[in-house]
Specification:
The protein has no helices and 7 strands. By secondary structure, the chain is mostly beta strands. It has a 7-stranded antiparallel sheet, with no helix packed on it. Strand 4 and strand 5 form a beta hairpin. The chain is globular, with a radius of gyration of 14 Å.
Amino acid sequence: MIDDPLTDGPEMSSKMVGRAQGFYALASQEEIGLLMSMNFAFREGKYNSSTITVLGRNTVFSKVREMPVIGGSGLFRFARGYLQARTHTFDQKTEGAIVEYTCFVLHY
């Protein structure tokens, strides 16, 4: 399960604009490939109370991973598109990561 800060930049001082909430599960026997189900739940500005929903495969050691946007709510109602995930930093001790998501979304 995940409930992580969604910020406008990778730095600890970046403004939090929402939460990345959902889950992931290992879904591959040959590589580290995750099944991800995630909502970007926005809490700031004009997107407050709106969400973007992502469901797809994340091969975490690939430089760029692409996953589909399957829906949304609020200002992102009927959202469709995709996002690209890039690992910004990874801490091998804690297995924690900062991931950059670039979202391309068409919505109502």
